[in-house]
UniProtKB/TrEMBL annotation:
Keywords noted in UniProt: Hydrolase
Family indicated by similarity: Belongs to the AB hydrolase superfamily.
Domain AB hydrolase-1: 19-253
Designated name of the protein: Alpha/beta hydrolase
Gene Ontology molecular function terms on file: hydrolase activity
Pfam families membership: Abhydrolase_1
Length: 269
């Protein structure tokens, strides 16, 4: 019998009839939600977790076979939902978790009430004239090579680019520490799964009402990606944030909270 709670370091906090599941992005763990979760605890039951290979998850549960595609991560989300007997959840996913949540909702639409995607991308690679994802294959190959050869150097290179908050160097250092705290082999495999993924074909299958939070200057996900998602995701709302960077829930928590509350129809008062 798999202990899902231990495997994914599942935490449940807050009170409320509605349940919000927070799913972190690549190179992070559930602690990255700490700037916004206090504002949700009084209205919602909050579920936090770490993907296998991240944070305080059970590293022994990681296998390249299971987690070599998004399928393994999708299954873990569904396992958590089943373990807690959750229904009609609001799933808030950052970056790669946006697509993981969407795929889970396609498989089990009854379990999801809304999806909120922060900095989502169905494909990070450019596809000729057909699609602009922001990266060429050579860019990703260089990134993966750097992770393999100099993991600490990769973290210190990517963190300031991704956070894009030069006025808050402490936040950049926090992200860098998060990047480097992970297992280098698992982190590289997760990066490859993430950056080589292509989930454009699944977009028409998604039916759950979705909020797309797109940052105005995101080095990982350009504005064209948010517009593409909005065009191909029926029942979606696109919100272009004033926030810059790829981590608005860290660098601009107030704006992030406000946008999510507005979508959920909850008063900030």
């Amino acid at each position: 019998m798999i202990d899902v709670a231990a495997r994914n370091n599942v935490k449940v906090v807050g009170e409320g009839e509605r349940t919000v599941v927070f799913a972190h992005g690549f190179g992070c763990d559930q602690s990255m939600w700490k700037y916004i979760t206090p504002s949700f605890e009084q209205h919602f039951r909050i579920v936090l977790f770490d993907y296998v290979g991240s944070g305080n998850s059970d590293l022994a549960a990681y296998t390249s076979e299971k987690y070599g595609t998004f399928r393994g991560y999708v299954q873990d989300v569904l396992d958590i939902i089943d373990m807690l007997k959750l229904e009609r959840v609001t799933f808030i996913g950052h970056s790669v978790s946006s697509m993981i949540g969407m795929l889970a909702s396609i498989e089990r639409p009854d379990a999801f009430d809304q999806l909120i995607m922060i900095g989502p991308s169905p494909r990070y690679l450019n596809d000729g004239d057909q699609y602009f994802g922001g990266f060429e294959r050579s860019d990703i190959d260089e990134l993966l090579d750097m992770m393999e050869m100099n993991f600490a150097g990769w973290a210190s290179f990517l963190a300031p680019l991704a956070m894009n908050a030069p006025e808050s160097p402490g936040l950049t250092k926090e992200l860098e520490r998060s990047f480097i705290s992970g297992d280098p082999v698992i982190a590289r495999e997760f990066a490859e799964v993430t950056f080589m993924s292509d989930h454009r074909q699944e977009l028409p299958k998604a039916t759950v009402p979705t909020l797309i939070l797109q940052c105005s200057d995101d080095s990982i996900v350009p504005i064209q990606v948010g517009e593409y998602l909005h065009k191909h995701l029926k029942n979606s709302t696109l919100r272009l944030m004033e926030a810059k960077g790829h981590y608005p829930h860290i660098s601009h928590p107030e704006e992030t909270i406000r946008d999510i509350y507005e979508f959920l129809g909850v008063s900030l008062g």
